[in-house]
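Quick one: structure tokens for this chain, please?
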Amino acid sequence: MSRNHARIIPGEEIGSISDWDFVDVDTSTSRFAAKVAAQALAEEQARETSLRQTLLSEGHAQGYAEGYAEGHAQGHAHATLEGQKQFNDYVAHEGRVAAESLSQLFATAQSQLAEAEQVMAKGVLELACELARQVLRHEMSTNPNALQPVVREALSVLAIDSKAALVRLNPLDMEVLSEVLRQEFSNLSLTLLPDSSISRGGCLVEAAGTVVDGTVEQRWRKTVAALGLDAPWEPEDVNA
């Protein structure tokens, strides 16, 4: 164990005595403290600047995002309005033109269909008339008695005002019907005249200046006219 011993220093050992001045120490300390404070202030200012830049950067980013969103919404709304306007314009103009064109095409198709139906109907009638012509021609060539009702009808009309009548018949029909007609209309002064210009199955009856045309051609023309056709009995009978 060491011991601390107090010792009195004699005067002769003390070379000189000077007062202790704390000025230099205080100055250094103040400078050091000022430097530390300045450094702390600089760091604080740097932190504040960095924070400010960060806030500004975040604010800029947020503002950009908000501006982009707003701009996008406005652009979308504008595009929607523009699209609606274009659609309305189309409906008002191009759509109307397309509708009118479609309506015209539909009307044309209906007209063509109606014409086709009329052509088909006329063709069917013409075919039916041709078949009827063939049947009648065969009937009149094999059964001359088929003419008798025609002559009877004509004479019954004319006999009301007259007692005499002239009947023109095809020579072949005359051979078959002359006797039958004389017997049936014995109350009339009946003159039977063969006429080769009259087709078989037809007749011309005259009485008191009145003529009843009972020819096949005339009867056929009236029959097909009722059906809306203009078809002669024979192809060459166009102007008959």
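The domain at 116-225 is CATH 3.30.2320.30 (hypothetical protein PF0899 fold).
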